[in-house]
Design goal:
Elements: E1 7-9, E2 16-18, E3 21-23, H1 46-58, E4 63-65, H2 74-82, E5 91-96, E6 98-101, E7 106-110, H3 114-128, E8 133-138, H4 145-160, E9 164-170, H5 174-181, E10 186-192, H6 200-209, E11 212-216, H7 258-271, H8 278-289, E12 293-295, H9 302-314, H10 319-329
Parallel strand pairs: 3-4, 4-5, 5-8, 8-9, 9-10, 10-11, 11-12
Antiparallel strand pairs: 1-2, 6-7
């Protein structure tokens, strides 16, 4: 596993990626659950999304993570458009397991069958305009273990057919991650981790099994950028404006929950030391936390892409800074 700042190995299969990936949930635009509640991050401008993706590539970012359900296919299409002609320069990760109505931009439900996995893969390959997915990830975080074991074997079939290079599970459960890791071509686990909510068990598992730790919500969905406080609210069509129960960083109306805003304030000075922005400090914390981490912050603008990619130049926090932050949050 590489330890330098700008590149890391994606687990145990020798796939090299930039130490920073870009998460493409936000650029999918608006979509909703069956009850009409927003699941996107609000309205986006596709031209800005394309420009931001291309700028990220210019700045050394080579790993892009999306899912078929983000914007009900729209995120994958925008990613394909932005990376046209550069396919061999990047590593693309996507996810499957959610059924959706692409026209209505609505989530329908989950499907953990092997047959659906194959249909979803073929559809993602078409939307992404590619002949292979570098990292294919199960998007049903709490799928039963017996069903997941069957899907793991299905992924091995996809590898043998040349449709994917490797696979992973997007889950916060180390037991589930370990089950998938029994497969020869499982190289990673995608899980929540950030300076406000550490994941020591999952990081220990990644170290033990040689898996990459792909960190979703590395900026706590914007809370660790400084853009949200108890007075500022999310916009229309933004999941943060009407947060589901699992999105505990935000309160009703999309303002930062006071207890979480207080934690950000407690570590703000430590994270912005050495000329970093708050977001760059949060990413640096993850790199310092483990040599296996690959954070994937979201973005919607060129400016956000430049700020996130700028974290690479600063590198990880120092050990004494990690200790200071742990003390501040204790």
């Amino acid at each position: 596993m590489k330890t330098e700042t700008k590149s890391r190995d994606l687990g145990r299969d020798g796939i090299e990626v930039s130490a920073l990936g870009f998460g493409c949930w936000a650029i999918g635009g608006e979509w909703a659950d069956p009850d009409g509640n927003p699941l996107g991050w609000g309205r986006v401008e596709d031209e800005e999304s394309v420009a931001a993706l291309r700028r990220a590539l210019e700045l050394g970012v080579t790993f892009f993570d999306t899912a078929d359900v983000y914007g009900t296919g729209h995120s994958e299409r925008i990613l394909a458009r932005a990376l046209a002609g550069r396919r061999d320069d990047v590593v693309i990760a996507t996810k499957w397991g959610n059924r959706f109505d692409e026209r209505a931009r609505t989530l329908i439900g989950g499907d953990s069958s092997p047959a659906y996995a194959r249909r979803a893969l073929v559809a993602s390959l078409r939307r992404l305009g590619t002949d292979r997915i570098d990292l294919y990830q199960l998007h049903l975080s709490d799928a039963p273990l017996d069903e997941a074991a069957e899907l793991r074997d299905t992924c091995e079939e996809f590898v043998a057919e040349g449709l994917i290079r490797a696979y992973a599970w997007s889950t916060d459960d180390p037991v589930r991650a370990a089950l998938f890791a029994e497969g020869a071509h499982c190289v990673a686990v995608q899980h929540a981790c950030n300076v406000l909510e550490d994941a020591p068990e999952m990081l220990a598992l990644c170290a033990e099994l040689g898996l990459a730790s792909i960190n979703r919500s590395p900026l706590a969905m914007g809370l660790l950028t400084g853009a949200y406080d108890p007075e500022r609210r999310g916009g229309a069509g933004d999941i943060r404006a009407t947060p589901p129960a699992w999105l505990r960083w935000f309160g009703a109306g999309g303002s930062a929950a006071p207890e979480w805003a207080a934690r950000v304030d407690a570590v703000r000075e430590a994270l912005t030391a050495d000329g970093r922005t708050l977001a760059q400090g949060a990413l640096a914390w993850l790199w310092a936390r483990s040599p296996h981490t690959v954070p994937i912050p979201g973005f919607r603008t060129v400016a956000q892409a430049e700020e996130n990619a700028g974290a690479l130049a600063h590198g990880p926090l120092r050990e004494e800074q990690l200790t200071e932050i742990a003390t501040l949050l204790a």
